[in-house]
Amino acid sequence: MLALIQRVTSARVDVDGEAVGAIGPGLLALVGIELDDGDAQVRRLAERLLQYRVFSDAEGRMNLGLAQTGGGLLLVSQFTLAADTRKGLRPGFSTAAPPDMAEPLFSQLVATCREIHRGGVETGRFGAHMEVSLVNDGPVTFLLRA
């Protein structure tokens, strides 16, 4: 399980012209689920999303995690992150979990984050064609693996 996280001043997901999730300051996490992912990876990624220190402290150093700032978290399922891109000019998706396996794990990640984060957790819509807009703060972007 992996997540491309971006520190944002705002982010929003639209489906068919309608906002389905939006946050102010916080993190946008594009989440890819792989074939061997399970409960342990869900728990580990949730902890990393909420504790990874990408927000500035009083001295301007990245020493604060999302849980400390109380910012929003926008989780968006994105199977293309789990693609195998090591060779050729076309991504392969043999490493990505199929939708019937990925959707429950993504839902579990959302539930886990909502259980432990008070700053608000929003989502896109699993399997939908989504338009994601954001204002990257920094820019600050990291790839996390669970």
UniProtKB/TrEMBL annotation:
Give GO terms for biological process: D-amino acid catabolic process
Listed InterPro entries: Daa-tRNA_deacyls_DTD, DTD-like_sf
Q: Which Pfam families match?
A: Tyr_Deacylase (PF02580)
One Gene Ontology term of the molecular function aspect: Gly-tRNA(Ala) deacylase activity
On whether Lipid metabolism is a keyword of this UniProt record, the answer is no
Mention any one GO cellular component term assigned to this protein in its UniProt record.
Answer: cytoplasm
Query: For this protein, what is the EC number?
Result: 3.1.1.96, 3.1.1.-
**Where found?**
Cytoplasm
Q: Which UniProt keywords apply?
A: Cytoplasm, Hydrolase, RNA-binding, tRNA-binding
Is NAD set as a keyword in this record?
no
Predominant place of localization: cytoplasm
Q: Which class of enzymes does this protein belong to?
A: hydrolase
Q: Which catalytic reaction applies to this protein?
A: a D-aminoacyl-tRNA + H2O = a tRNA + a D-alpha-amino acid + H(+); glycyl-tRNA(Ala) + H2O = tRNA(Ala) + glycine + H(+)
According to the UniProt entry, where does the motif Gly-cisPro motif, important for rejection of L-amino acids sit in this chain? Answer: 138-139
The UniProt entry, under HAMAP family, shows: Deacylase_Dtd (MF_00518)
Fetch the PANTHER family from UniProt.
Answer: D-AMINOACYL-TRNA DEACYLASE 1, D-TYROSYL-TRNA TYR DEACYLASE
Quaternary assembly: Homodimer.
Q: What is known of its domains?
A: A Gly-cisPro motif from one monomer fits into the active site of the other monomer to allow specific chiral rejection of L-amino acids.
- Its job: An aminoacyl-tRNA editing enzyme that deacylates mischarged D-aminoacyl-tRNAs. Also deacylates mischarged glycyl-tRNA(Ala), protecting cells against glycine mischarging by AlaRS. Acts via tRNA-based rather than protein-based catalysis; rejects L-amino acids rather than detecting D-amino acids in the active site. By recycling D-aminoacyl-tRNA to D-amino acids and free tRNA molecules, this enzyme counteracts the toxicity associated with the formation of D-aminoacyl-tRNA entities in vivo and helps enforce protein L-homochirality.
Please state which protein family the record places this protein in.
Belongs to the DTD family.
The name on file for this protein is: D-aminoacyl-tRNA deacylase
